Amino acid sequence: MPKPRTYERSDLIKAAMEQFWAHGFYATSIRDLVAVTGVSRHGLYAEFDDKHGIFLAALESYLETFVEEAFGRVEEEAASVREIRAYFEHLIALAEENGLPGPGCLMANSMVEVGPHEEAFKAVIQRHLDRLRAGFARALKNGQVRGEVNPLVDTEQFAEFLTISAQGLWSASRMISDAAHLRAYVDTLLAPLEP
Q: Which domains are seen in the chain, by residue range?
């Protein structure tokens, strides 16, 4: 008779997500995941099939928690440049609170590490990038309607620019120890939007 499960799946995924976030997919072994989750190798395989399954669950959890909390404000119906700035500030303040340099963004890290090599991971990362692009574009269009964004700005192209720039900013946060540098970058990034 199988042993009853003695862990919460959400706690397991959170612990695995933090391990992957700090060390990456390839550098994290099943032994590492057993150590951080407290769940046996057999238990991990029974729950997720393999390390790929654990990582996919970690990516989805990251999207549902960190990304939703930070980016949800940009996706609000009335969002504009203020909410875009608040998105960047929220994540910079969080990184500052947790200590810079920090682990960066799990999605940005994964885009570089596994995106080119693992189709299942690439699909999740692409969905994340598409979400950012769409949210930025709508907020920029709202800003133009209200006169808060330069009417000459191509909102679709600038949304793409913000999406790519955000990934670079979060990657840079792994090397930068002063949040003022990150805030100065955001100021420069958003300056062309001014009417």
A: 1-65 (1.10.10.60), 72-195 (1.10.357.10)
